[in-house]
Amino acid sequence: MPLERILMSKPDVGELEEQYVVAAIRSGWIAPLGPDVDQFEEEIKHRAGVDHAVALASGTAALHLGLLAQGVGPNDIVVTSTMTFAATANAIAYTGATPFFVDSDRVTGNMDPALLDEALTKLEERGTPAALVLPVDLLGKAVDYTALASICAVHGVDMLCDSAESLGATHKGKAAGSFGRASVFSFNGNKIMTTSGGGMFVTGDESLAQRVRHLSTQARQPVVHYEHTEIGYNYRMSNLLAALGRAQLSRLDEMIEQRRKWRQGYRDHFAGFSGIEIFGGPEDDEDNFWLSSIVIDPQVAGVSANDVRTVLDQHNIESRPLWKPMHLQPVFRDEPRLTNGSSEYLFENGLTLPSGSSMSWGDFERVIEALAIAVVPQ
Ligand SMILES: *Cc1c(COP(=O)(O)O)cnc(C)c1O
After folding, report:
1. For the whole model, what pTM was predicted?
2. Structural domain tally of the chain?
3. Mutation test of ligand 1: which of 8, 58, 60, 192 has the most ligand atoms closer than 8 Å to its C-beta?
4. Same domain, 220 and 258
């Protein structure tokens, strides 16, 4: 019998989740909204250290409404990271605004602060200052918010932070999701914790949270009949999914701890290898360890990321390149950017390895054995 396929990040859902969802069904709160949604928002607020949270249908919906609530629309420019999942740039496009892509810091893949500064200066000189900056916490490592916040302050621009991948991570001891004017989490199936599909908008600004809440429920006016004075969206999270999220959130630390062990395992395995580094740099105690990746210098390591991927695939193990930068995507080809080659290097030479918290130690050993076949120390 062929060995079962080892996935990069299989959802980690079990009995506790089953109990919570069954309880929600039996409570009769099947519609969107309900007590589990309220509780889930409270628990995320507590976890992320923010005053307001709005549970939504997806991280993409949270980005979309976060942009709209901050007044972003056609003729605006939103500066974002080129190294991200398409959802970040798509949400900007939904509003009619133009995404401006900034390249990465070579070590973390996160937005390069010096390049951001340069991009904001250029846009000001051109008479088209950025409306908003949208940094992305890549693969569970928070952006250098200290650097970004001071640059944004100098340029007088706000941040909406895409923390879709970084729930549970911190920057200088402060939770991802608590930076900038507002942030966004995702609970999609492959994220560190899941509601099968869902997201959350979080902010310290009450009026912003109210605005997002209003837009997410068809922008219905508070009167007895259905009265609408503007276009709204059906973006709220369902109560059943919030119940699943509450069970997952109660296990978040345990899931982070398991993923941390895989990261350490990969670090130990590759310790003696030249030309192979663990993506994200040596300092990772503030990560949520969502995904572990390696970056391979093929000249030094003697193999390429694609060679390694091929060998893993032959052993029925899933691995994948890092995000393909947005400025290389056909759909965003014509959008403005400021690049330095880092994200292209990381895309070509990075490889994400199985990192899921539900992976067994036996499966992890299978991955290490296949890696030992794929890469021999030089
Ligand atoms: C997953 C993800 C999103 C989108 O979240 P969904 O819940 O899938 O809509 C946005 N940005 C980044 C960086 C992501 O990884």
Report:
1. 0.97
2. 2
3. 60
4. no
pLDDT band at 253 (very low <50, low <70, confident <90, very high): very high
User: Lowest mean pLDDT: which of 176-190, 215-229, 246-260?
Assistant: 215-229
Verify whether ligand 1 is closer than 6 Å to residue 116 (CB atom): no
Average pLDDT, the chain: 96
**Does 267 lie in the same domain as 183?**
no
For ligand 1, atom 2, name the residue with the nearest CA. Answer: 164
Domain boundary among 250, 266, 293: 250
Counting ligand 1 atoms within 8 A of each CB, the residue from 186, 192, 241, 355 with the most, and so the one to mutate, is 186
Digit-coded pLDDT (tens) for 280-332? 999 899 999 999 999 999 999 999 999 999 999 999 999 999 999 999 999 99
Q: What does the alpha-carbon distance between residue 346 and residue 350 come to, in Å, rounded to a whole number?
A: 5
Whether the Cβ atoms of residue 185 and residue 200 lie closer than 8 Å to each other:
yes
Domain CATH number, residue 268 = 3.90.1150.10
- Based on the fold, state whether residues 309 and 358 are members of the same structural domain: yes
Strands annotated E in 19-82: 52-56, 77-81
Domain boundary pick from 221, 250, 279: 250
**Phi and psi torsions of 255, nearest 5°:** -70, -35
Ligand 1 lined by 65 (C-beta under 6 Å): no
| Cβ of 245 less than 6 Å from ligand 1 | no
Residue 72 to residue 207: CA distance in whole angstroms = 16
